[in-house]
């Protein structure tokens, strides 16, 4: 066993870079977070500066080690987890990005996706990648860069220009340009990776006209990816675990058995269910994705995403200005016994799974003269619960696996009224763990397993501990009319923006 006492997790998210030092019990010893700038150069476009991502991540990492009072000799390994699908393309010789990172939220390739759909490409993409033809994923974003930056395609064909998701970019920088690698979970979000054969797929590369020479080597999620070079971090620390942030959260929640699921209530919501060694094809437009690969075992997950989750609370705060904090929303919501017949569908940017309707728009229905801001707060919280319940139902139908318990994390999982409503809707237990930094913890676990810091997944499973749980306290008969009204409200929001 490695005598070094800590694991450093780098959690590179959409709005901030975080670094957390964990000890063997899975406890966070120090946490440092650094926000960075979002760029919106055109409507529907979202970009990040890859150098700013790198610098913010380095600063967070160095400070987290310092805050824990540690040195390089104390860190057994580094785990990396990241916002997924976001595309960085850089020059191999200089290490400089040749374009800002195109973020997963960016919709600039909607027309290209539409054309590919018309050409009948959806089926092969779904079969090989488990994904849908949507601008969300990396492939069409890489294509856009190759088409729009002069001379880049030829250079990419010669391997002089490299592509990576954020994990690859950070590893490239941390290893001083020695490793151009990614893990299977990140690769599975690109539209280019065959999730069955675990290889970049020549047919898909052909469809999107992307040269293989620019792609990283794909590794498992828990093995040595490279060693740090002297720089912002000291020389020689192994980078030993990598996973996309939602898969890492599934791992950090110790959802290791088939049928176990977690939901992250952040800006959006991401529900992932472990389906074991079986990649299940969804009948409800959920995504089939690689959860992780450890040794020679690949595990898969069914994933559903909601675009507006906790963000609906931000909207009440920042746009409507009817609350001054998220906590106030919870307080107001508990002053009323229900939403008084008000249903809010927060389809502000369209609806994700299971609808995937970019034309859907927000709807509030059931407003009467008696509707007040407490009802609106309650309806907003409930809208998060309803959307997640839709995903859970789809997941259960696709997998044939009942949900015994939902493990939760993310900012909005702090809301007790939301979690109670969720348990009522699902008619199953909802559990908040002691460590809510599950994303970073998952990456730490993957790295720690690779270097023998943790013996096996059983040890990790036993580390997971519950802080609070919520049992259904309303019957299925009481809940059904609410679900019916919700479905009715959703149907009125679909296809609104013709
Ligand atoms: N006490 C709370 N009750 C309800 N929602 C909350 C609470 N605290 C934070 N949130 C919501 O959580 C979201 C942020 O969660 P976080 O996990 O940090 O998101 P992300 O990783 O997507 O940036 C915000 O949208 C915010 O409205
Ligand atoms: O950075 P987050 O937590 O918003 O997660 C983003 C997801 O990985 C996008 O697929």
TrEMBL record:
State if ATP-binding is listed as a keyword: yes
Q: Binding of ADP: at which residues?
A: 14, 18, 267, 310, 411
Q: Identify the InterPro entries for this entry.
A: ATPase_NBD, Carb_kinase_FGGY, Carb_kinase_FGGY_CS, FGGY_C, FGGY_N, Glycerol_kin
- The protein's role, per its UniProt record: Key enzyme in the regulation of glycerol uptake and metabolism. Catalyzes the phosphorylation of glycerol to yield sn-glycerol 3-phosphate.
Protein residues bound to sn-glycerol 3-phosphate: 14, 84-85, 136, 245
Checking SUPFAM superfamilies in the record gives:
Actin-like ATPase domain (SSF53067)
Family classification = Belongs to the FGGY kinase family.
The keyword Nucleotide-binding is assigned to this record? yes
GO terms (molecular function) for this protein are: ATP binding; glycerol kinase activity
What is this protein called in UniProt?
A: Glycerol kinase
Q: What is its EC number?
A: 2.7.1.30
> Where does the Carbohydrate kinase FGGY C-terminal domain start and stop, copy by copy?
262-450
Indicate the segments forming the Carbohydrate kinase FGGY N-terminal domain, all copies. Answer: 6-252
**Annotated residues for binding of glycerol:** 84-85, 136, 245-246
Specify the pathway. Polyol metabolism; glycerol degradation via glycerol kinase pathway; sn-glycerol 3-phosphate from glycerol: step 1/1
Question: Tell me, what is an example of a GO biological process annotation in this record?
Answer: glycerol-3-phosphate metabolic process
Reactions catalysed, semicolon-separated, are: glycerol + ATP = sn-glycerol 3-phosphate + ADP + H(+)
């Amino acid at each position: 066993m490695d005598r070094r006492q800590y694991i450093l997790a780098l959690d590179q998210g959409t709005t901030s870079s975080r670094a957390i030092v964990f000890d063997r019990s899975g406890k966070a010893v120090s946490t440092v977070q650094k926000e960075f700038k979002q760029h919106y150069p055109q409507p529907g476009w979202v970009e990040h500066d890859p150098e700013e991502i790198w610098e913010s991540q380095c600063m967070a990492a160095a400070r987290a080690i310092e805050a824990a009072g540690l040195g390089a000799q104390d860190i057994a390994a580094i785990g990396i987890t990241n916002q997924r699908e976001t595309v960085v393309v850089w020059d191999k010789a200089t290490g400089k990005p040749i374009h800002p990172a195109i973020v997963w939220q960016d919709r600039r390739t909607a027309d290209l996706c539409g054309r590919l759909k018309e050409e009948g490409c959806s089926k092969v993409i779904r079969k090989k990648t488990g994904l849908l033809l949507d601008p969300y994923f990396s492939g069409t974003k890489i294509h856009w860069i190759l088409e729009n930056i002069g001379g880049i395609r030829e250079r990419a064909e010669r391997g002089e220009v490299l592509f990576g998701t954020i994990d690859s970019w950070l590893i490239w920088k941390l290893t001083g340009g020695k490793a151009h690698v990614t893990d299977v979970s990140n690769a599975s979000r690109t539209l280019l990776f065959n999730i069955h054969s675990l290889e970049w797929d020549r047919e898909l590369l052909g469809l999107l006209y992307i040269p293989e020479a620019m792609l990283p080597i794909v590794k498992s999620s828990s093995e040595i990816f490279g060693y740090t070079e002297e720089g912002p971090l000291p020389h020689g620390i192994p980078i030993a675990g990598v996973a996309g942030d939602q898969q890492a959260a599934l791992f950090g929640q110790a959802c290791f058995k088939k049928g176990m699921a977690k939901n992250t209530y952040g800006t959006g919501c991401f529900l992932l269910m472990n389906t074991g060694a079986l990649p299940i094809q969804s009948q409800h437009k959920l995504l089939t994705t690689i959860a992780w690969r450890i040794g020679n075992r690949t595990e898969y997950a069914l994933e559903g995403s909601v675009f507006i989750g906790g963000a609906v609370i931000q909207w009440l705060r920042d746009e409507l200005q009817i609350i001054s904090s998220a906590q106030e929303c919870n307080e107001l919501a508990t002053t009323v016994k229900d939403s008084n017949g008000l249903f809010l569908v927060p389809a502000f940017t369209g609806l994700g799974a299971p609808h995937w309707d970019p034309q859907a728009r927000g709807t509030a229905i059931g407003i009467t003269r008696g509707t007040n801001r407490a009802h609106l707060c309650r309806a907003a919280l409930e809208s998060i619960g309803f959307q997640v319940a839709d995903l859970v139902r789809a997941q259960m139908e696709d997998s044939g696996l009942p949900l015994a318990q939902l493990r939760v994390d993310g900012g909005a999982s702090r809301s007790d009224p939301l979690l109670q409503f969720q348990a009522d809707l699902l008619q199953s237990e909802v559990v908040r763990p002691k460590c809510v930094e599950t994303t970073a913890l998952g990456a730490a676990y993957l790295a720690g397993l690779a270097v023998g810091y943790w013996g096996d997944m059983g040890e990790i499973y036993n580390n997971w501990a519950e802080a609070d749980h919520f049992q259904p306290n309303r019957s299925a008969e009481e809940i059904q009319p609410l679900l019916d009204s919700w479905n009715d409200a959703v149907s009125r929001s679909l296809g609104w923006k013709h």
